[in-house]
Design brief:
By secondary structure, the protein is α/β, with parallel strands linked by helices. It is built from seven helices and nine strands; from the N terminus they run αββααβαβαββαββαβ. The strands form two sheets. The protein has a seven-stranded mixed sheet with strand order 5-4-3-6-7-9-8, with helices on both faces. It has a two-stranded antiparallel ribbon with strand order 1-2. The N and C termini lie far apart (about 60 Å).
Length: about 220
């Protein structure tokens, strides 16, 4: 892991508009393979790539949805889970959210999200850490873009999101039909044909949808004898 994270992000990316959300500019990597190796991953292995360096389809769809429907987050407290580049969090801030917390387990992602927030002149509260065994805090809206990419990750994320939904938060997910998306628990809100990096997705576009997670059904307590 590089010690100068700000310098590392700046050295391996360039600031450019997001393909499907051109209102937002991100520090993006032009070519994924070399950067993947530098961040201790192995191309085409099970190790995920540096999510902070790319605008993924699910995140683009969710960001587009928020900017087109700012009432979704306007005036509300928002948590962006697994923020990556910060794209969705930035869109929420631009849409008028009162407070936006952005969290990612990768410390480089936290730095990148902070740099991207600065470039877009919005304020985010960015944290590096793993919140999945905890709760959503006081967030009224919880956002998750492209988080169901592996079985292990999906299981932990779903538990976290279900707890948030059960506690009254509105949970929105952006996803390009990844294998582990819990479709049976979601209601589709919108769909988009999103440009994606061909080196990562092997296609030029992905159909990505925005879903709302339905809260778990509360079963009534058994009657006392």
């Amino acid at each position: 892991m590089p010690t100068d994270l700000v310098g590392f992000v700046r050295a391996h990316t360039h600031l450019a508009p997001v393909a499907y959300v051109p209102e937002v500019h991100l520090h993006q990597a032009a070519e994924p393979v070399g950067l993947w190796e530098l961040t201790e991953g192995e191309f085409r292995s099970e190790q995920p790539p540096p999510f902070w360096a790319f605008a993924w389809a699910g995140g683009q769809a969710l960001a587009r949805y928020l900017l087109d429907r700012p009432e979704t987050v306007a005036g509300r407290r928002v948590l962006d889970l697994a923020t990556g580049s910060g794209l969705v969090a930035i869109a929420a801030a631009r849409a008028g959210a009162a407070v936006v917390r952005a969290v990612d387990v990768d410390p480089v992602a936290a730095v990148a999200a902070g740099l991207n927030a600065e470039a877009n002149r919005v304020r985010l509260a960015v944290t590096a850490g793993d919140p999945l065994d905890g709760d959503h805090g006081d967030a009224q809206v919880v956002l998750a873009g492209d988080v169901f990419y592996s079985e292990a990750m999906a299981t932990r994320v779903l538990r976290f999101l279900l707890r948030a939904a059960a506690d009254g938060a509105r949970v929105l997910v952006g996803d390009p039909d990844r294998a582990y998306l819990p479709r049976e628990r979601c209601t589709e809100l919108a769909g988009y044909q999103v440009p994606v990096p061909t080196a990562l997705e092997s296609v030029h576009t992905r159909h990505a949808r925005v879903w709302q997670l339905r809260p778990p059904v509360r079963r009534p307590a058994a009657a006392l004898a």
